[in-house]
Amino acid sequence: MGQALRLTEMVPADIGRIDAMIAVKADLAARIAAIDVRAPYSRPCDIATEIDAIRVIAHSNGLNPAVTVAHFVDSALSRGEHGALVHGWLAILRDAVGCERQDVQACHAFAAACSVRLAG
């Protein structure tokens, strides 16, 4: 009942922002999926350029966990990870994009997951 009440209290501007965020998350998810398909055949420097574009979009839209993970993915690519190894990183990035929380604790949780993976 509380959820329905909140939805009825939303103004058109709120709905527009929600729609815009859904579109941004869908775009980022599509970009990540496309990278994932090409990752086994791509050079790390090519993937890094695409990850940086995702990071910029995530940053400009306040998707803080995705920004955090994108930095870790870039570090992994800089270390030379490529091919199938990139798949796991993209899975974490996909989860970060879909994350509803944008607070510092969410960023720390994703950073911890990435640190474990990076230490491998």
Q: How would you describe the overall organization of this protein?
A:
Helix content is 80%, strand content 0%. The chain has one domain (11-119). By secondary structure, the chain is mostly helical. The protein has six helices and no strands. Helix 2 runs antiparallel to helix 5 (85-98).
Report the β-strand fraction as a percent range. under 5%
- Which stretches are low in confidence, meaning pLDDT under 50 for 5 or more residues running? 1-5
Structural domain count: 1
Distance between the termini: 46 Å
Count of alpha/pi helices: 6
Structural class: mainly alpha
Number of strands: 0
Topology pattern, helix = H, strand = E: HHHHHH
> What share of the residues lie within helices?
over 70%
Average pLDDT, rounded to a whole number, is 90
Largest sheet geometry: none
Outline type: globular
What is the radius of gyration computed over CA atoms, rounded to a whole number of angstroms? 16 Å
Quick summary:
The chain is mostly helical. The protein is built from 6 helices and no strands.
What characteristics describe this protein?
mainly alpha; 120 residues; 80% helix; 6 helices; disordered N terminus
How is this fold's topology laid out?
Blueprint: H1 2-8, H2 12-38, H3 44-60, H4 64-78, H5 85-98, H6 104-119
